[in-house]
């Protein structure tokens, strides 16, 4: 048993003490106020008000059992829906555990899947603990950290904790690590769970707590043998009404149900689970139009889009509610985001979800509409409690998979392999995956890293690979950024990297405004392609940001651009620039627009994205991709997408993204020359390309135009001498 813990009796006494205190405005002993053990200040009356609410949560019935197991066991699994209070209460109890041993083994960290959920929980828990956010309780999400040296409980996204492991492989800052939403089986969560098994062997004092929404499946339980499981008594599920709608008709059925509920005048907000972001936006537009025809005595109907991974629109508890009926339009995996909505009384569940399934053979995602798991279906029903109603838009006998399929089996794992290679340097030689990645996907990831010169001859990280792993970017983009140091175009390439990493800056307006939006976007168009157009947009955004009499928000609205996406890109750009300076790589002065700069940007892009090159084979916009011989068209939103072949489409292009099953389009496209491709692509990659007419053309240029190619080859930039030796080989020879 850990030092300072006296077992179950101590925690029973503590519960009894707090129960007694919860009935008072302020607890006093003579003239002494009870002090908060975390900041040393007297508790406020609000603390006891919230304590009453907390003790009514189902999780509190398991408090003594949990604290006893935390003191005696290294791994614990706790299952219970979001309404049980698992995500807010258990991390607080872990902080009490660490406090009882004077933080000898470190503080508490609790991972989350969603950024907004991370922030919401940290704010709620700081309020419940009666401390200041950013001090004793903090949070870390991409591009935003709110912590200090006094932080004892930190909420963070799972990918942020992985990034932290690059500097602290054994996570020695933490005495308790709480992995929340383990049932989501994201790539980052699965990697964490695999590495923590090895870390726990080397740190017997470490405690690991896994939180899941429902009873963990046999796969997760089998991964941790003899681990204690605490099953929380959840809120009873809502009354389920199965409509038997076919998968093709769920969208119209969901909207029809929303309007019927509103006309029935039954109280309560509604959450609608659809499959895709396009459906969410379309449903919002339709409901806004229908709202204009609703009689005033029925009240206002307010549709709210809640896109996965974005959040930011959900109210916190305590806000004034009930003045209108809110309809939250969302999709998987957002089930846990609605813990703060007390007026939620209806759930409409389409029963399907959109999954991006990565195909390593063509290096592209296929979009698949799949049924949700039984875990997700049950979580959605429990959002509204026993007094609400859950409408399931599928037959009751629909066979739903028992568990959520792990994302690591359906994702491009090149970034994950790069990270694990970095961890190998840190002393963590293997990752004990719950479900091992697909061997074909693993081989493709290793092959890609080898092409990018991130691996040495022994399969370990090269010096370039180590630097690439420092950037929170896809490996291809990280290599592009490194190559830009050699070609003296860092200022421009870091803008491209930020704009492509952030959400799309282009707003998709309603159908009647799309022509106007296209005309506005044309003003930023660059003749060399979409990558350069993104630089134009960012420069215009920054210029208007510094204009004293210009509203950036209105400027974005006028040009149909997303202000939040541009602000995110600006923050990402600052972060990337800070990393470049930290590892002492040069940041060039702006020179966008010059002929030499344009050529250097293309070379830097090809250094990372030489595997994503296509050729127009028939001069009609059918682009043949050299790597896997598929043919696709340029996306209509591209600068080239609106052109007809008569206006002159580029023959050779570099593209950033290829979507296979959704629309068979290549996105973010820029013009290149075959000579530039030959110069930048590794020879062994070129020779491994499958036979094709396009490869023959390149081979012809290589064989017969060698002297011409050498004459065209531009000497290395004079600034190369100022670059550390490790980056001198960033251009693939």
Automatic annotation (TrEMBL):
| Presence of the UniProt keyword ATP-binding in the record | yes
Family matches, as InterPro entries: DEAD-box_helicase_OB_fold, HA2_WH, Helicase-assoc_dom, Helicase_ATP-bd, P-loop_NTPase
EC number of the protein: 3.6.4.13
Which UniProt keywords are listed? ATP-binding, Helicase, Hydrolase, mRNA processing, mRNA splicing, Nucleotide-binding, Spliceosome
What CDD domains does this protein map onto?
DEXHc_DHX32
Q: Name one Pfam family in it.
A: HA2_C
Give the domain of life. Answer: Eukaryota
Keyword Metal-binding assigned to the entry: answer is: no
GO molecular function terms noted in the UniProt entry: ATP binding; hydrolase activity; RNA binding; RNA helicase activity
The residue ranges of the Helicase ATP-binding domain are: 67-233
Which PANTHER family does the record associate with it?
ATP-DEPENDENT RNA HELICASE (PTHR18934), PRE-MRNA-SPLICING FACTOR ATP-DEPENDENT RNA HELICASE DHX32-RELATED (PTHR18934:SF88)
Q: What's the protein called, per UniProt?
A: RNA helicase
Its source organism is Salmo salar (Atlantic salmon)
């Amino acid at each position: 048993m850990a030092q300072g813990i006296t077992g179950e009796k101590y925690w029973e006494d503590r519960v009894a003490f707090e129960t007694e205190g919860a009935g008072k405005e302020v607890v006093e002993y003579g003239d002494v106020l009870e002090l908060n053990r975390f900041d040393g200040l007297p508790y406020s009356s609000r603390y006891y008000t919230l304590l009453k609410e907390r003790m009514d949560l189902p999780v509190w019935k398991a408090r003594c059992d949990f604290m006893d197991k935390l003191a005696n066991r290294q791994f614990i699994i706790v299952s219970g829906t979001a309404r049980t209070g698992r995500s807010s209460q258990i991390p607080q109890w872990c902080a009490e555990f660490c406090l009882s041993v004077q933080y000898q083994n470190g503080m508490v960290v609790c991972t989350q899947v969603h950024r907004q959920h991370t922030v919401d929980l940290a704010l709620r828990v700081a309020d419940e603990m009666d401390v200041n956010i950013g001090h004793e309780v903090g949070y870390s999400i991409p591009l935003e950290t709110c912590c200090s040296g006094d932080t004892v409980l930190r909420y963070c996204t799972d990918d942020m904790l992985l990034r932290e492991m690059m500097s602290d492989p054994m996570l020695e800052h933490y005495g308790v690590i709480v992995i929340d939403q383990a049932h989501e089986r994201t790539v980052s969560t699965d990697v964490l769970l695999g590495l923590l098994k090895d870390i726990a062997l080397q740190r017997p004092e470490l405690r690991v707590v896994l939180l899941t929404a429902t009873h963990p499946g046999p796969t997760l339980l089998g991964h941790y043998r003899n681990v204690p499981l605490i099953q929380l008594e959840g809120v009873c599920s809502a009354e389920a009404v199965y409509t038997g709608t076919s998968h093709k008709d769920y969208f119209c059925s969901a909207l029809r149900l929303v309007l019927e509920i509103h006309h029935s005048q039954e109280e309560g907000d509604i959450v609608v689970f659809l499959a895709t972001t396009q459906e969410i936006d379309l449903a919002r537009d339709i409901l806004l139009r229908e709202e204009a025809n609703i009689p005033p005595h029925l009240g206002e109907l307010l549709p709210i889009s809640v896109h996965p991974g974005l959040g930011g629109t959900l109210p916190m508890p305590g806000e004034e509610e009930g003045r209108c009926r809110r309809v939250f339009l969302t999709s998987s995996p957002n089930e846990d985001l609605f813990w703060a909505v007390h007026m939620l009384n209806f759930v409409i569940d389409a029963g399907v979800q959109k999954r991006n399934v990565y195909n390593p053979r063509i290096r592209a995602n296929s979009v698949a509409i799949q049924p949700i798991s039984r875990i997700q279906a049950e979580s959605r029903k429990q959002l509204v409690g026993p007094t609400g109603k859950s409408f399931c838009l599928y037959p009751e006998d629909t066979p739903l998979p028992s568990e959520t399929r792990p994302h690591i089996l359906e994702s491009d794992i090149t970034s994950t392999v790069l990270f694990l290679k970095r961890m190998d340097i840190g002393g963590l030689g293997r990752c004990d995956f719950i479900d091992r990645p697909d061997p074909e996907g693993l081989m493709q990831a290793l092959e890609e890293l080898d092409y990018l010169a991130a691996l040495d001859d022994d399969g370990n990280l090269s010096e370039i690979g180590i630097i690439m792993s420092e950037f929170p970017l896809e490996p291809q983009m990280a290599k592009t950024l490194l190559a830009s140091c050699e070609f003296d175009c860092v200022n421009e390439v870091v803008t491209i990297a930020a704009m492509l990493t952030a959400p799309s800056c282009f707003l998709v307006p309603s159908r009647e405004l799309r022509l106007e939006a296209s005309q506005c976007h044309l003003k930023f168009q660059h003749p060399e392609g979409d990558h350069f157009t993104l630089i134009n947009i960012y420069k215009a955004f920054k210029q208007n940001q510094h204009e004293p009499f210009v509203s950036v928000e209105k400027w974005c609205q006028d040009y149909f651009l997303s202000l939040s996406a541009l602000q995110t890109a600006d923050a990402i750009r600052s972060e990337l620039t800070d990393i470049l300076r930290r590892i002492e790589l040069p940041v060039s002065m702006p020179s966008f627009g010059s002929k030499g700069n344009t050529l250097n940007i293309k070379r830097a892009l090809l250094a990372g994205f030489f595997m994503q090159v296509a050729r127009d084979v028939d001069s009609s916009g059918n682009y043949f991709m050299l790597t896997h011989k598929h043919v696709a068209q340029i996306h209509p939103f591209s600068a080239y997408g609106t052109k007809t072949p008569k206006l002159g489409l580029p023959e050779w292009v570099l593209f950033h993204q290829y979507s296979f099953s959704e629309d068979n389009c290549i996105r973010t496209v820029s013009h290149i020359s075959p000579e530039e491709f030959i110069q930048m692509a590794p020879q062994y990659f070129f020779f491994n390309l499958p036979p094709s007419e396009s490869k023959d053309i390149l081979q012809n240029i290589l064989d017969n135009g060698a002297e011409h190619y050498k004459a065209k080859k531009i000497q290395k930039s004079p600034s190369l001498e100022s670059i550390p030796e490790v980056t001198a080989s960033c251009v693939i020879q």
